[in-house]
Amino acid sequence: MKRMIGSILKHRSLSLLVLLALLAPILAACLSSRSATPAQQKTAQPTPARPAPAVTQASPLTPTPFFPQSPVSSPTALEQALSPTSSASPAPSSQTPDAPAPFPNTQYNLTAELNYDQHHLAVTEQITYTNHTNEALNDLVLMVDPLYYPGTFKLNSLAWADGQPVEKSITDTGQVRLTLRQPLPPGASLGLSLAYDLSLPSPTPSDISRPVPFGYTAKQTNLVDWYPFVAPYVPGKGWLAHPAGYFGEHLVYETSDFRVNVRLVGGRQDLTVAASAPAVIDGDWRRYQFNSARNFVWSVSHDYQVASEKVGDVTVLSYFFPIHPTAGQAALKTTAQALALYSELYGPYRHTTLTVVEADFLDGMEYDGLYFLSNGFYNLYQGQPGDYLVSIAAHETAHQWWYGLVGNDQAMEPWLDEALSTYSERLFYERVYPEGLGWWWNYRVDYYQPRGWVDSNIYNSGSWRGYRDAVYLNGAHFLEDLRKLIGEAAFFGFLKDYAAQYAGRIATGDDFFNLLKQHTQTDITPLLKKYFSSR
Ligand SMILES: [Zn+2]
Q1: Long-range contacts, stretch 448-452, CB < 8 angstroms, 24+ apart
Q2: Cα 517 → chain centroid
Q3: Coil, helix or strand for 350?
Q4: SS3 call for 40
Q5: Measured in angstroms, how far is the CA atom of residue 334 from the centroid of ligand 1?
Q6: Within 10 Å of residue 1's Cβ, how many Cβ atoms?
Q7: Alpha-carbon gap, residue 389 to 318, rounded angstroms
Q8: Is 170 exposed, middle or buried (0-12, 13-18, 19+ CB in 10 A)?
Q9: According to the model, what pLDDT value does residue 210 have?
Q10: Quick check: helix, strand or coil at residue 512?
Q11: Ligand 1 centroid vs 203 CA: distance in angstroms?
Q12: How far is the CA of 13 from the centre of ligand 1 (A)?
């Protein structure tokens, strides 16, 4: 029960109206107990702020015929994949930093062997990185979030594609900076090869008040942000490589292509794997191809049950624990309803599957093609629209557009995905459960009397409560006021255009407002002054 209440009180969601009313004083206390001053944040060391996804067994999906050849570990395939930079003609780029590049996405080829009982993952990784910017690069920054967990990440080898050693420096903020032997021109590519072991962490008591997706519990093993990846580079700004904060998400992802080969070792036959993409079963291997995505996550459990349904061409999957069959179905249904609605409002979903995984940790957490939803919401689910399971599932589904399709700097401009995803909950209730809309405004948003600058970042809000109230909740009020001010046609026309224009890219607040100006003549200055500190 303590855990359940903790979950509810936690972040983005609320739960039962009645329970909430009863628990209001406790809740307020719990929330405030989570706050930390910026100074505390700095000392609150290796506390990875980001939750990780879970993996389950091969989904019962129609296999997608992608790479038919044997795992990337085949020497020839490897050589081809890693053959250096001959994408020679450095097409002089007049692209803006984050403009859709005419160049190939960066490629990640990962081969991972998981021993579920020993909580151990052995990984080989090849990265073929293409410089999408209009500047030559002198170094690369790899984001390595497992470094935040002491004793977790053991690097066995790191070399350029030609086998030459890499000059590197490892920071204490989950990053590795690689010095290039020669500048990498715009449009050129290079290959990097890594091998490493992960001794997976398990949440400790001090983590209990925050979502910790990466690692294992007695119920599941979640592999999120489990591999090194290259941070986005923006001319004029540099590498978008931020340290973890005490709350909120800090990673920024370029759209990339993933080939992932997974094998479960150790002899267990009872494991189920959930993942960002459908698996092709090839003997002992599960092979995944996930293109134009922000990341690839997976979750494994001996205890998952699976339900699925189709929404158009997309298969929605729900992985849940056996004690929650009703809530597991509700998570499936809500995700499917939200997927259909947002596809209509924002534009098509770009993958073939969308998976929701019941999480053995707090809160909800979005990844591309897969999101986690805390078992606390399943415990409290009572079959009503005014259940947190419903509102948070709608929120996390919206992240497939605001985070997945349209990327943003989650650390410095988190409102771009969080305010839009929170407001998407409002649109979900408006269209799917209008009878729940009053509950939503009253208990999800206004109960907290939200205030604070919508453009706060994850480092300057002072507390989780302050951050959530400003970015998520006041962000929803800003979007509601914007909609009223500019009208339905301009508002929804803008959202759809924003999704289309910035699909696969990393949008900024400037991009958001510059595009908005093309959809309305209305002066929005009063709104900007009311909600934003920097506009
Ligand atoms: Zn969110």
Answers
A1: 448/473, 450/474, 450/477
A2: 29
A3: coil
A4: helix
A5: 16
A6: 6
A7: 13
A8: middle
A9: 77
A10: helix
A11: 21
A12: 10
Give the bridge partners for 356, in sequence order. Answer: 318, 371
Strands 256-265 and 285-293: antiparallel
Mean pLDDT of 348-360: 98
CA 23 vs CA 26, 387, 445: distances in Å: 5, 15, 16
Q: What is the pLDDT of residue 93?
A: 35
Of 30 and 502, the structure prediction assigns the larger pLDDT to 502
How many other C-beta atoms can be found within 10 angstroms of the C-beta atom of residue 535? 15
Q: What is the pLDDT of residues 278-303, one digit of tens each?
A: 999 999 999 999 999 999 999 999 99
Model confidence at 390, pLDDT cuts 50, 70, 90, reads very high
The Cα–Cα gap between 180 and 135 comes to 14
Distance (Å) from CA 180 to ligand 1 centroid: 36
Number of residues that make up the chain: 535
Query: Structure tokens of 134?
Result: 């209009």
Residue with tokens 């991009």: 511
CA of 473 to the centre of ligand 1 (A): 11
Which residues contact residue 129 at a Cβ distance below 8 angstroms, ignoring those fewer than 6 apart? Answer: 106, 140, 189, 190, 191, 192, 230
Q: Are 361 and 372 in contact (CB under 8 A)?
A: yes
